[in-house]
Design goal:
single chain, 182 residues
Length: 182
């Protein structure tokens, strides 16, 4: 069984969602066939939205990606699944890379801490800065890095899925056009 068929078989149908009492209020929006159709544009847009919200926002990624998929008529299942780009395993490296990108873009100065093993809490407490200043100093590069990463990866994902989809379509057409030798 192909991967796409296996994925489709595990997803709930529109009828199952319509019968669900918790999701019934979304019915007018969720019943659009474009939101569930596996087309090049819908899947590429859904994955791009999921990656964008997965990287940009640490909480409520799935509801925001579903809302954006409804507004932009993208594939909802792929938007939901691709938010899992950030998970407990990838969270640390992604946020560290985004912070480093933000430091590079904003030009903010990093202050490496010397850790005294006898007093490890001294590395956390900077004598010259208050708690909120340290959070603010970390926050601006992190937010800039996350925003840039989310936009770049979302656009790259959309382009990559579109290219792969087109390439597979061309390969399939060429395979059908060949006449088997007699």
């Amino acid at each position: 069984m192909r991967l796409l068929q296996r994925l489709k078989s595990r997803l709930p149908s529109r009828e199952q969602i319509a019968r669900n009492r918790w999701l019934a209020w979304l019915g007018p929006w969720l019943h659009s066939p474009k939101l569930w159709h596996w087309s090049r544009r819908g899947v590429a847009m859904g994955v791009a939205l999921g990656v964008f919200f997965g990287l940009l926002i640490p909480i409520a990624q799935i509801p925001l990606s579903v809302a954006a998929a409804i507004v932009m008529r993208a594939n909802i299942p792929t938007a939901v699944a691709s938010t899992l780009v950030t998970n407990p395993v990838t969270f640390g490296p992604i946020y560290y890379g985004a912070y480093r990108l933000g430091v590079w873009v904003t030009g903010s100065k990093e202050h490496p801490k010397n850790i005294d093993l006898n007093h490890p809490q001294s590395a956390v407490a900077d004598k010259d800065a208050s708690f909120w200043q340290r959070i603010t100093n970390l926050g601006k590069p992190l937010l800039v890095g996350l925003a840039l990463s989310a936009v770049m990866m979302g656009l790259l994902t959309y382009a990559l899925i579109s290219l792969i989809w087109r390439w597979r379509t061309v390969v399939k057409r060429r395979g059908r056009m060949r006449v088997p030798p007699s």
